[in-house]
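@channel sequence for tomorrow's demo:
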Amino acid sequence: MNVLLVVMDSVSAKNMSLYGYERETTPWLETWATNDGVTVYEEARAPGRWSLPSHASMFTGLHASEHRLFDRTQRLTIPTLWDELEFPCAVFTKNSYISGLVDTGLSAGFDTIVTKELPFDGLDPYSYSGNTEKYLKDALRSENKIGSLLNGAFAKFNLLGWTTDDYYVERFNEWSNTHEEWGACINLMGAHVSHNADRSCDWVDEESIDLQTRVDASSRWELIDDGDIHIFDELENLYDASIRKVDKRVKEIVESVDLSETLVVVTSDHGHAFGEKSEFRDVRLGGHGVGMSETLLHVPLIVSYPDGIETSDDPTALSSLTYFYDVVSESLQKGTPAFNGVTRAGDGGMNKSNPELWESLGSPPELSGDVFVRYHHDGEDVIKSILWDGEVFEVNVRTNEVSEGNSEDMNIPKPKTVTSDSEELSDEAREQLKDLGYI
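structure tokens (generated this afternoon):
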């Protein structure tokens, strides 16, 4: 059996036509979802509101409150799912947190790492996790010394530019065709900063395109007031058009594999905010630098199980990406995999995930501190309990009504000792995080 995890980075369920959005952003996924053996989960939630904690949960099966991998100064010290699989595994992405460029421990289980398109034949400096000394030694010993050294120089001075998702799709196809059994994670970043929007969409105009060239990535992350809301309206136009292009890339990936022998999970690690009001703070939210709103946590989840594997899941019930680890294990054992279960999320606050931005905003205390979320059903309604700064709030997801909650109902799992201090960021990692708006 093969394992394929396709992460549409930063894609909110609410912006997908598959989930009822008015714009046709995901036409292929809508078509694929009608096939026998494909399950569309209506109430899937991400374990965190940004890449690091969400991928940590998917890769380990631990809730965010258990691993507490909330900032880039920490790294995971336990094996991940990819370590445990008994066949070759690879990751294809520009996302620094899972490619190994930032030392988070999430890349350790991958035998192959493809992160940036290289200009010359030779070694890939991004697969060395910032270890310049080792890279130089290997480059000088390699068959393509000149090409390897030039690749290293281009990476060092951030000259490689943006690698589009179609490159990762192509490289995945090349790699998967060389293995009889495999596991792969493809993290598509096309919607993360909307660099590659489908400009044929009728909702994209010259004003949106012009705004994209003038607004840098970090500006999209700041908390905004009502006077700036028009900027996010235009950026959301580009975001929707980027999702349309991601939908095309997903089509190419899924159609290239044998579905009868492959567990295919298509999802997102988190969503993206465009001026929505916080549910319990008096602010509007932009990007995914802070907050635990539904636009950040309600994510798509579409699963195709291989022949002989059936799930007992109710696709309308609450489901968590944290169970990806267990779903893979159960599928390999010919068991009954399930994404349904206790659904939680966690975050360490902007002071941990983006300290530079937090400090530039004056280090506001209301944007710091751990936040934990637990979901449950109340009849047909979904209720979200939020613990922050010693207070518990309950939010009715359908009506947006907010009330006081009970901390005893949260029953937050205790943290496990699964992280340690990581190495300082390399210059290459810092530049790439800046490109993505994380610094």
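heads up for whoever presents: The chain has one domain: 2-117+160-435.
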